[in-house]
Amino acid sequence: MMWSRARWTHEWQQLRSVDLRDLDVKEAGGWPLLLKWLCGVLALLVALLLMEWWVIGERRAALDSAQQQESRLLSDYRRQAGEAAQLPKIREQIATLQDQMTRLRAILPTDAEIPSLLDSISDAAVDNRLTIETVRLRPTVSRTHYVEQPLDIQVRGDFHQIARFAADIASLSRLVTQHDFTLAPADSSGDTLRLSLLARTYREREDTP
Hints:
By secondary structure, this protein is α+β, with helices and mostly antiparallel strands. 54% of the residues lie in helices and 21% in strands. Strand 2 (141-142) and strand 3 (146-157) form a beta hairpin.
């Protein structure tokens, strides 16, 4: 229904003449039409705001939570997908390390083989015509994954004999490392040298899997 300009003017004047302090809700049926409309629009806005706060707001919070969870799950998926892509390479590296450990264990002497290792060192000195002054064991040193067995070695001979002796120790079938070399003249002539060194061999701990 279309209103004429005169009707609009009349309703507007009635609205302007209303004193809000004199309004009584019980007499709302007698209020000016524009005031009724304004109150209806206001009530609708309040209802929409309440719906937004109570219903839609709760749904929006649930949606935000679901989006955050989706983001976390997507990040986890991407991370796990990246790890899965690296899995063949990791398995290959593990296999290589296990092979290296197997080869390393094969050159570590057992506790029962230590005496024969001392004999091999002494034989190397004799083969190179060195005079053996000392070949003896020190107390073992327990490490996290292995037991270290130090050996004191002291021999006399010329430079070439000593060099071959050191090379023979390095080529033994069991792992022996050489440390703390001291090479000094053994007599006043200087032709004979004395080699003192600390050698170490290693064996697995008994509690190592």
